[in-house]
Amino acid sequence: MNRPHLLLVEDESNIAQALLFNLELEGYRVTHVTTGAAALERFAGERCDLVILDLMLPDSHGIDICRQIRRQDKRLPILILTALSEEQHRVDGLDAGADDYLTKPFSLGEFLLRIKGMLRRSQWYRPESRAEIISFGANRVNLAELSADTAHGPITLTELEGRMLAAFFAAEGEVLSRSHLLEQVWGLTADTETRTLDNFVVRLRKHFEADPATPRHFQTVRGRGYRFVREPDSGGKAD
């Protein structure tokens, strides 16, 4: 039986050893490195199923490493670990292509659940090759190819962005609660931290809205969740 192979990039030895022990106890095969350069070398040399990436590395910033990995593999799950509490660092990590993040200190139980969920979701998502191209505003999205043409230029979508868009497109005009999106897109329980979800909606707005500060397609419905409206003039307005 093939064990999932994880690449752990963490330079704090006490944290790394605890994660290594528990990940291997869960049956994962783990490669541990302590620098960004070593992470890129191992990533280029052997296949892995998920990357656990600390932001603060001795030779580089984890966000730069995340960008380089994401340019080479659009679907590989990437979990960022950060001791930085500022929201902008989390947003930067998601913008660089990370799928999720945990802020230190975090519970071991939550960490292992995130890993399990991310690996499970990476196997779930298989867009149908016949999927239609969705057009809205100045955008054309092809979920099968994880690509889009936008007013800002062509982009390649990550797997998680594809799942988020698929959920919105399938429920066009309907309000999707945070708990629904967390469960359907991330495979997480409703009581899981929701800022990752909110930051991802911000990310979609940067891609697809003419003015991300005043979104017309990906709307916030106060106290209820989010709604996708293909034609805002005929759809509902955000609260």
Would you kindly provide a written description of the structure presented here, covering whatever features stand out?
The chain has 2 domains: 5-124, 3-Layer(aba) Sandwich (Rossmann fold), CATH 3.40.50; 133-228, Winged helix-like DNA-binding domain superfamily/Winged helix DNA-binding domain (Arc Repressor Mutant, subunit A). The longest helix is centred in the middle third of the chain and has 17 residues, at 108-124. The chain is an alpha/beta fold and 239 residues long. The strands form 3 sheets. It has a 5-stranded parallel beta sheet, with helices on both faces. Strands 6-7-8-9 form a 4-stranded antiparallel beta sheet, with no helix packed on it. The protein has 8 helices and 12 strands.
Task: State the helix count.
Answer: 8
CATH homology superfamily of the largest domain = Response regulator
Total domains, how many?
2
CATH architecture of the largest domain: 3-Layer(aba) Sandwich
Oligomer: single chain
Distance between the termini: 51 Å
* Fold-level CATH name of the largest domain: Rossmann fold
Q: Mean pLDDT across all residues, rounded?
A: 86
- Uncertain regions: pLDDT < 50 for 5+ in a row? 124-130
Kindly provide the name of the CATH class of the largest domain: Alpha Beta
Sequence of strands across the biggest β-sheet: 2-1-3-4-5
Radius of gyration based on Cα positions: 18 Å
User: What does the main sheet amount to?
Assistant: 5 strands, parallel
